[in-house]
Amino acid sequence: MLKPLDPLLHSELRLAIVSILIGVEEADFVYIRTETGATAGNLSVQIDKLQKAGYIEVEKGFRGKMPRTVCRITHSGREAFAQYVETLKEYLKM
Amino acid sequence: MLKPLDPLLHSELRLAIVSILIGVEEADFVYIRTETGATAGNLSVQIDKLQKAGYIEVEKGFRGKMPRTVCRITHSGREAFAQYVETLKEYLKM
DNA sequence: TAAACAAGTTTATAAAATAAACCAAATATT
DNA sequence: AATATTTGGTTTATTTTATAAACTTGTTTA
Prior knowledge:
Arc Repressor Mutant, subunit A, homodimer, alpha+beta, DNA-binding, 4 helices
C-alpha cells in the first residue's frame, strides 16, 4: 500500500518554492516569482502556508526603501522534503 | 524555469492508479481500491478522468454475475507518465 | 503632481478532491 | 420466502485547494 504524500509539498507551486530554497542559502520573493512564473498573489499565499507549516522561514524587511521578503528553508522543511522524495519514489517506481 | 507538471498526473490518487497500472498487464476496480485505500466514489471519478484523457482504457464487464471494471494503461498514458517523471526530477533535484 | 511601477496582501472565483448518498444485483439471514 | 447485507459501482453534494483579480502602500518617473 502506497504511503500518503505530504499534501503541503504535493502542490506544484509549493514544491517549486521548496525545490528552489533547498539549493540556496536564501531567496527573495521577487526571485522566486521569476523562477516559478507564479502570480504574486498565488506566491504570497503559498509562501504563507509553507511558513505556517514551519517548512520555511520568512523575513520581511527592506532593501533600501523597497520592501523585501526573504525566504529560507528550515530543518523541518528539509526533512519533510527528503521524506516526500522517498515516498514519491514508490509512486514513480524508482 | 521549472516546467509545469501534468495536472492530470500530479494528483495523489491518479498518480497511484497509473503507478499501479504501469507495473501490470491490467488491474480491476476492486484491486486498485484495496491497493490505494481510496473510497469507491473517489476512485470512480479519478478513473473516469484518466480514461477521458486517454491515459487508461476501461472495460466494464462481468466476472460471473458481478460487475467488473478492468483498467489498463495506454501507450499515451505510459508516455505521459514518463514525461511526468522527467519533469518531476527537476523539482526533486535528481 | 499625477501617472506608472514595485512588492506584496486580501478577497473572490474556479477547479479539485473527497465524501456522502444512492442504485442495482447478488448473496446471506431469519 | 421475505428481508437484510454485501458487492461493485455511480452520481451528486460538500469541502478544500489553487488561482486570479482587485486592492494597498509606498516609489520612482514624466
